[in-house]
Structures are given as structure tokens and as C-alpha cells.
Amino acid sequence: MQLVINPRSPKSRKFPITLVLDGTPATVRVEDVQAAIAEKFPQLYVDRQRLTVEKTALEQGKTLSEYGLKDGDSVTFKDLGPQISWRTVFLIEYGGPLLIHPLIYYLPSLFYSRTFEHSMMQTVTFWMVMLHFLKREYETVFVHRFSHGTMPFRNVFKNSAHYHLLSGLNLAYWVYGPWNAAGTVLGERSRTVIYGCIALYAFAELSNLKTHVTLRNLRPPGTRVRKIPRGYGFDLVSCPNYFFETLAWLAVSVLTLSWSAHLFLVVAVGQMYIWAVKKHKGYRKEFPDYPRGRKAMFPFVA
């Protein structure tokens, strides 16, 4: 069969082209078309390609006939630009705080021009943050299975800034400073507050890990299968992983009483809620039998 590939940009010098594909619209899949384009233009590897028909994106695994395409029809091509894997993006994002926090915590003379003894609050906060991001790195390598393999390379800088600046430099500098050192009024916390925050943090992090394992087990290796998540946390909300992460950072915020921790909490929760609502709506649209009683992120609320 023949398929015309039209460019989205009128300035394109490569397109339009006509591909001759082995098979019929009922047997030729979207990935066959992408492979043919990549063979003709090696720099346009599959992850850089976006094919659409009347603004509907073509998904891998589906045949052309599923989109009503016939022999001689056309689709629109868009070059998404250089790509980077989501796994690499996450490793870069979480690696920032793992480098920044130890530098500021262990080398205070470089940042505050003096040395001092850290308070228990500062030490507990340091290990909370380090364990959180070490867990995230572990999940990135051994737990997560990504529905989308890549993202535009240019976005890695925007994504990393959220972690490197807000939960990295900004949080570390203001929490580990001499104004919160041992013996200062600002650095003092009761044992009840400290241990209470540790308990909330531990519960939240372990619960977050459990929900990530549940999501991982929904998708067989090497596939993009989507199913309705069920079980711990998911009976109440569509994104319990975001809810439990909110609790973890709430523990850090309550423990430090720092405006920098409060700022990161507000920004992070706001962004996670936007993602949760989008995923919640996607679940309800994709699965007719999706549980109606679930909220997006906050149990019984929203």
C-alpha cells in the first residue's frame, strides 16, 4: 500500500514523501510506518516522530485501518526534536539534591563562612531528604516501567530546575544554616515533634514505594499495557503515590518550619495535583468501569 507523509511545517525540505509499505491498511501498523520513515531519514528515529490524522495521534500497536486510513491516504508528520529517555531524566533530576545537600551540610564553611554543630532537626532533615531521593533513584532503575520512553531533550533543564533549585539548593541552604544550629532557638524541636515527623515520613515513603510497585506490576516488561490500578491506596484515589509523597514532604515542612520547605511543598503538591487530575480523567475516559467513588489525589476530597 502507499501512504503519503505530509509535514506539519510548511518549511519542511524532507516532506511530503510517499511510502510504499508491504501489506494492507489492516496489517500495516503505526510502528511500520515510523520504521520506514527512520530508514529513509536515519536522524528521524522513531522516538522523534509524531504522526497524526486530523489532530489524532497515531499510537504504536494499532493498524492504519483502525484510524480509517486507506491505500493512498495521508498522515501528518511532526519532528519532536532530539529526545532523552525518561529514566535518564529522572536520574539527573534526583541526582541534583543528592549532590547539593551533602555539600552544604558537610561543608558549611564554604556556604556560611563558618563551622558549627548541626541541631538534631537539621540532621534528621538531611537524612530524610537523602533517603527520599536515594529511594527515587532506586525506583527509577529497578521499579518504574515507563509508558513513554522519551521526552524532548530541552525539557530536562526545566524539569531538573524544580529539584535542583527548590528541593536542592534553596531547601538545603536555608535549613542547614547556622541560624538553625544546635543551641539556637530556631533549631530546637521537642522529641515528640521530631519522632512524630519521622514516623509520618517513614509511613509515607514506604506507602509511596508500595504504590509504585503496584503500578509496575500492572505493566508486563516491554509493553505499554494499561490497566485499572487497585489495592492499597488506589481504592480511595487514582494517584495515591502523589498523596503519600505529599505526606512525606509535609513531615519535612513541619519538622523544619522553614519557608523554603513550605515553598517546595506548595509547588510540588500543586504540580502533583495537576498531574493527578489529568490521570484521573484519563482513567475515567479510558475505562468505562473505572470506580466512580475514587478521587484524584486527596481521599474523600479531590
Automatic annotation (TrEMBL):
Molecular functions per Gene Ontology: very-long-chain enoyl-CoA reductase activity
Protein keywords: Endoplasmic reticulum, Fatty acid biosynthesis, Fatty acid metabolism, Lipid biosynthesis, Lipid metabolism, Membrane, NADP, Oxidoreductase, Transmembrane, Transmembrane helix
Cellular compartments annotated: Endoplasmic reticulum membrane
Cellular component terms (Gene Ontology): endoplasmic reticulum membrane
Membrane topology classification: Multi-pass membrane protein
Domain Ubiquitin-like: 30-75
GO biological process: very long-chain fatty acid biosynthetic process
Entry similarity comment: Belongs to the steroid 5-alpha reductase family.
Protein's name in the database: very-long-chain enoyl-CoA reductase
